[in-house]
Every structure is written in C-alpha cells, then in structure tokens.
Amino acid sequence: MPHRTITLSQFILEQERRHPEASGEFTRVLTDLALAAKMINREVVRAGLVDILGETGTINIQGEKVQKLDRFARDVIYRVLSATGQLAVLASEEDEDIVPVPEGQPVGKYVVNFDPLDGSSNINANVNIGTIFSILPRISRDGNGDLADCLQPGTRQVCAGYVMYGSSTMLVYTTGNGVHGFTFEPSVGEFLLSHAEIHIPERGRIYSVNEGNYFKWGEGIKRYVDWLKAEDAAAGHPYSARYVGSLVADFHRNLLYGGVFLYPGDRKNPKGKLRILYEAAPLAFVAEQAGGAASNGRQRVMELIPNSLHERTPLFLGSKRDVEDCELFVQEKHPAIRVDRRAASPARTR
Ligand code: AHG
Ligand code: MN
Ligand code: MN
Questions:
Q1: Element (H, E) at 180
Q2: Which of 70, 71, 222, 259 has its CA 20 to 30 A from that of 202?
Q3: Site to substitute for ligand 1 among 67, 117, 165, 274, most atoms within 8 A of C-beta
Q4: Which atom of ligand 1 is nearest to the CA of 118?
C-alpha cells in the first residue's frame, strides 16, 4: 500500500479533528511559519548563486556577525507572521528587544519566539542550517503583547519545532500530541508527511559536543564525556562522536538515531552558548514529546523561566537514558564515578 500523501495543512486539520481539546487556533501561525520556511528555503538553496552570502557587516545582540541570510530569514518570518492577526508579540535572536505587531495590524493571542537561522556559521559551507520556533499563548490581557508574554517557561508552549534546510528540507513540530516530520517536495511546493510519530530511542550510541571546549568544562562533564569514550563493551561504549555545529542538524540526527547533544557551561560562559527561549525550550518540547529529555544538568529545560530574552542555558538534549546519565555525572552522583574513584585510590593496606 503506497504511503498516503498528506500535506502539512491536511495533517494539521486531521490533528485538530482527532484532538478537539487542542484549540488549534495557532494552526494559522503554524501554517504561516511553513510558508515562511518555503520562502527561506528558496534563498538557502540558491545562496551559492546569488549575492546573498557574505556578511551584512552589522553585529547582532549576540555580538555575532549577522550573515545576510539571518536577516533575510528574520524579515520573512516577521513579514509573514505580523500580517496574520494572530500575533501579540514576537522575539527573535536577531532582535535585541521584543518586536511588536506593526501599527494598524490586528493584535492576536499568540507569541512566537524564534531563531530565524540556526547554524549561521555553516551557511557558506553549505552545511545544514535551520529555523527554530516556539509558539505560546499571550498572558497579557489586551493591546500589544509585552516582554512577560515572551518570558514564559517551556511548559507553556502550545507548539514548537524546527525547519532544517539541506539536501531535503524538513519541518518537524509538536503541539503536545507527538512529533511529526514533513519533507518539502519542491515540485508541488508542499511539506508532505514523511515521519509520523517520531520516537527517539531510549538510549543512543552518539554524543554531540564541541570538544574544543573540553579544558574549560567542569569536572562532571569531562568525566561524562571521558566515560562515553572509554572502551566498555558491556556499556556499549565508546559512543560515536558526531558534531555538525548546527544545533538543528545535530538534534535532528540524534532524534532519529538516538543520542545526546551537549552544550555545557564552562569557565568562560557558565550558562553555555544556547538560548532558552528560541533554541533550548522549543527543542526540549520536541525531545520530550518524542520520548526523550532536555536538562540543564539539574532541571528540566521546559521548567526554566528566563529573566531576559537572550538568556542562555547549559543544554543536555536527546535520548532519555543518556540525558539521565549526563545529569548524574554533572551532579557527581553517577555510580560509574564511585567505581572510578575506588579504582583511582586502591584500598589502604591494614
Ligand atoms: P546560531 O547560528 O543561531 O547562532 O546558532 C549556532 C549555535 C548552534 O546552532 C550550534 O549548536 C552552536 O552554535 C555551535 O556552537 P560552537 O561553534 O561553539 O560549537
Ligand atoms: Mn541558533
Ligand atoms: Mn541564529
């Protein structure tokens, strides 16, 4: 029986019928994000052909050189979403402050926090990059949305997901009823259901981290990564190291194959590099809905309440058992540490 061809829009409507409890009003926001993704995808795949590469020469709030595609992606998403009447307010990696709905446009019920282009440093190398989005209900009562509307914990998200632009462009999202993946079919201009009900293996054999930071990490993470690399057939070690440097690409591979992504804090950046609102929280929602986990080493990422738009967090994300091991190492509670210590200090002779 050939696989039924279901577009993203058809799937969203079917989901609404199957889960009446999910109001689905944010459906319009999700379908508009899919439209923006198609427009960004068109530029990303042509990036090598048109003079859109290179840097705009401006510096964004993160102090990083803004590549033209970052700005383009941010503007496309802003233009498409702010005309829907669904939005109360936006926040993005490329904007220092919240972005209100334009004058004269109707103000709606939803907040979108997004990373317009994730993995920007990979743009010129034609390595997969992505867009990450998080949709929340506003908490302010009326008028334009405000900062508090954006600074909500991940548990308040009604929808989250990502687009990954590459050899095939995919959109993966959750509304709290499982994780579903769609592959863009350029010939019909539609995202077609290709990965229904994605489940991440409970334990993987892959770890993804920038080991160039190893000597800046705390002891817990060093021990954890050393443990993953040690020869121990019974434990299924060593794991394989896979690191693309685009969070969306590293996460997507681990979501399908199993594995753990780590971006720890370190001596220079105790909170690490990744931002709660538009990187950690949305991917945490997807990971948990796929049966995985997301932690900052001590707490569920989904429960973190950011104090500012660009607040960072250490991020351990992926297969449930692997994230648990990582937390136990960070908290110096993993049984392997005690064994290690006993081995390191042989029993005193009487
Ligand atoms: P962005 O391009 O949105 O700033 O995100 C880049 C992030 C993330 O995609 C990736 O996991 C991480 O930067 C890689 O950082 P390092 O180069 O320090 O490993
Ligand atoms: Mn990013
Ligand atoms: Mn980005």
A1: strand 179-185
A2: 222
A3: 274
A4: 3
